[in-house]
Amino acid sequence: MRRVANILIAGVTLVALCLGAWLLRNGIASHLPPQPSAAQAHRGRPPTQPPAPALPPSPPDRVRIPAIRVDAPLMGLGLTPTGSLDVPPAERKNLAGWYESGTTPGEKGTAIVAGHVDNADGPAVFYRLGALERGARIEVERRDGSLALFTVHAVEMYDAHAFPDEKVYGAADRPELRVITCGGGYTKGTGYRGNVVVFAHLTGSRP
């Protein structure tokens, strides 16, 4: 079971993101998305920038990650009837989602953003997420008109069968953000075998 803001999420993380329809159609030789290097992992190192004070709650409307050319609207995500996290429509490749029953990006706690790595037509919104590096900036436009600025302090790859629920989804005593998509090895039978997770914390804001 997986806990996000005191709500349990069951099942494999974002399984619907991980089928790899583009790879199934075109083969995998030259199409695998970039994967994070060991140098970008936590490894017990301190954050690259000090945290900023928490913002009041406000739903997010858009996420930008300049280093990997992401500029995408955000939709609210809930839970499926089986208790797993829902996903954005696969056909809308430049759309990401946030878990709207949990923490809003910028307030104290762990906010969750998720998106597809690809769809049947090719790379999707978070195709290059695994190429992100420590120190990169993530910007989240919020409905109250503010801009929450996050700094990446780790990028990790986890096998789906060894996903560290508490590390990714657990409560935080400062404003944190997780951005999740699929990654790792790929097989036609099971799709992607893991998840890329970006860990970031709030380091600033603009009104």
Task: Give a structural overview.
- It comes from Streptomyces capitiformicae.
- This is Class F sortase.
- It holds the Pfam family Sortase.
- Keywords: Hydrolase.
- Residues 47-60 have a biased composition (Pro residues).
- The protein is mainly β and 207 residues long.
- The protein has one domain: Sortase, Chain: A, CATH 2.40.260.10.
- Helix content is 5%, strand content 40%.
- It has helices at residues 21-26, 165-169; strands at residues 2-4, 7-9, 60-65, 70-77, 96-99, 109-115, 118-119, 122-123, 137-142, 147-159, 175-187, 191-206.
- Strands 3-4-5-6-11-12-10-9 form an 8-stranded mixed β-barrel.
- A hairpin with a 2-residue loop joins strand 7 and strand 8 (122-123).
- The longest helix has 6 residues, at 21-26.
- Mean pLDDT is 84; it is low at 1-8.
Keywords:
207 residues; Sortase, Chain: A; mainly beta; single chain; 5% helix; globular; eight-stranded mixed beta barrel; 2 helices; two-stranded antiparallel sheet; disordered N terminus
